[in-house]
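Dear colleague,

Thank you for sharing your sequence with our group. We've completed the structure prediction you requested, and as agreed, I am returning the results in plain text so they can be pasted directly into your records. Please verify that the sequence below matches your submission; if there's any discrepancy, let me know and we will rerun it promptly.
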Amino acid sequence: MRYARPPWTPCWSPLGCGASAGSGASFAGAAAPGNGRRTLFDCEQEEFLGNAVLARPEDGPETADPSVNRAFDALGLTRDFYNEVFRRNSIDGRGMRLDGYVHFGFQVNNAFWDGRQMLFGDGDGKEFSNLTGSLEVISHELTHGVTDHTSEFEYHNQSGALNESMSDVFGSLVKQWSLKQTAEEADWLIGADVWTPGIGGDALRSMKDPGHAYNNPKFGKDPQPDRMSKFLHLPDTKRGDSGGVHFNSGIPNKAFFLTAVRIGGFAWEAAGTIWYESLKASSADDEFQVFAGTTFQKAGELFGAGSPEQSAVLSAWQEVEVPIAGVPTGVARVRSFAVNGNGGATRGDGQAALAKQIGALNDKLTGLAKDVSALKGTV
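Please find the predicted structure tokens below.
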């Protein structure tokens, strides 16, 4: 199978992926099934995993090492989120065991999923603190594993930015779910707890406000775009961040944030379900417009054509300047939704008219999707 990105590639610097964190072999297969059982190992600041010692098994007690306990808890929260919210049995949907390795290397500024397990660096105390200190960072990395086993978004250009965005989306949702925060209450920040510990009030990325997560002398100003007119055209090389996957992910990130706050309530319930079902229905080389169309269709299937949820999806993508094929530009653009007592959007006369228009467009898109599927079957 294809992995979301090459093993051992660090991806938490705001400057994008750079030189590898260590040399290691890629893994051809997933770990043995185990209903998401967790096992933590201590690398004792070495990078050779074969020398790591067992630190805490699934049924073991807390240890004296807070890094072990934080990683253990974060793996469990991510596993439980996918199980309870989406009925997904671990990363691969088949009970894949969750192995984690703490104290990986000496002052490594990274935490990453290598296709089989999680590795956590201690950070250098300047750029990063200990990487087990951020739940959304850990959930972000584990979600790369979910993407490996669903869409397999290719890790470059727009499909790579979608790959990164999926990890930010579900990483943030795990944190919100664990805190029982509504979309309005959430901070929508990625990595605020571990990045630049000496600088307060910054984060690696902001899903709510891409381009404004940080501004400091060491890294400058956050360059993430929040709409297609600001899209960064970078070379598809390691130095070019594989076509800007960590930068241009700000565009679909903002689309998800807008969808979630316009629907209201808990973001994992409606917006999260739409994105999860869309992730499962996507193909490896899908770009922003194709994925946007998938979310629009899934919103219609899940909540009804012309529903407030589908209207929220449509207006969100249009605000970040990603058109949905077959939908005229301007329909539902930057539309506000009144939130009812249950956290959902209410529908007035104007909304009913819009629902009818979107319903007709949705029927056209559904028919087009069936035609495309039929054509693929004849190739």
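Summary note from our side: Strands lie at 38-42, 53-57, 98-102, 111-113, 118-120, 189-190, 205-206, 215-216, 220-221.

Kind regards,
the structure core
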